[in-house]
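Consider a typical record:
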Amino acid sequence: MNAPRKTSSRRTSRCFRSCTSKFRQGFTIIELLVVIAVIAVLTAILLPAVQQAREAARRSQCANNLKQLALGCRIYENFYGRFPTGSANQFLPDGNQTDPGGWLFQISPFLELQAVYDDVVQGSIDDMNNNLFNNYPGSIIGPRTAIGLAYQPKVIICPSDPRDPVAVAAGYAPYLSWMGGTPSGLTDYVAVSGLDNWSAPNTPAAGVINWNEDFTTSDGWRPGTRMADIRDGASNTLLIGERPYSTLGDLGCWTCPDNDGFAGAANTSIANMVYAWPGLIPQDTGLNTDYNGNPCPPPPYYFGNGPRDVNSPCSMNQLWSTHAGGGHFALVDGSVRFISYGINASVVQYLATYAGGEVVGNF
C-alpha cells in the first residue's frame, strides 16, 4: 500500500500566509501615530535651523547692501573731493552749488542709478522752466521728477524688513499734496550724523555725513567732509547704519534731505519729518508719541536702547535694525561690522564722530 501523503503542514503554511496577507494590508493606528510623532519632532528640530539659515542669508545681503553704499560714498569722495552731505545742498569743486536731495540721492549715479538721478534733477529744472505752479496745480513737481522720486532701489532696503516699501509709500502718498500725491521711495539705511540728528558741521559732535546747514556762513550751507578731516581713522569711524523707515512712510524717504537720511548715535532731539506741517497727519508734528498717543521714552536715544518695532514711531529716534541682537554699520574704510546692542553706548558714540580724538579698542 502507498504511504499516506503528509499534506497537513503544507496546508497550514499556506493558510498562515494567506491569512496573514489578508489582515496586514495597512498600518496600525499605533504605527501611524509613531510616524506622525517622528515627523513632528524632525520638523521642530529642522524648522528653527531653516529659519536661522534664511536670516543668515538676509543678514549677508544686508551687509552687502551697506558695502555697496559705502563704496558709493567713497567713489563720490574720490570724484568730488568731499563726502556727500546730509542736507540737500552739495558743493562741487568748481564752486557750483546744487540742491538735488540727501546723501543717498547724491551718490545714486555711483550706484548705477544715473537715470533716476537725471529724472529728478532734470525734471526739477524742467518744472521750473515750465512754470510748474500753473502746469501742476497743488504740486511743486512735474511728471518726470515724480518718476524719479517714486523709484525704489533694492540696494537701500534691508531684506530682513518684513514690510513692502512700495505699498507703504503708496499708502502715504495721498498726504503728500506738495508732490501731487506721488509716492516717494523709502530706505532702511541712514548716514550716521554724529552724536545727534542735528550735530553741527565741523564740530567734535559731527559725523562724516551730517546736517550741513550752518547759518553762520554767508549762504547758510557748508560743504561735505573731506577725507583729510577724518582724524580718528577710516577704520574707526562709522559712515552708514540701519534705521528702518517709518511704517507711515513719513520718514525714510531715500531722495529727501535732513533726518529722512541720517541719525545720531545719542540723539537728544526727536526725529522730525522734513516737511512737518501740523495738521497733515498727527505724527508729522514730531515723532514724540506712539500711534496710541503715549509719549516716547525720554532722550537721549542710544543705538537700539528704545523700542525696536517697525510699528512704533518712537523707533525712528534711534539707530536700530530688524535683525536680532544688533545692527550693521558701514565704516569709512568700506568695511561692514555687525555691532551688538550690548556694546557700551559710549563706544558707538566715539565711532560716530570723525575727529573726536577718542581711543577705541576692539568692537
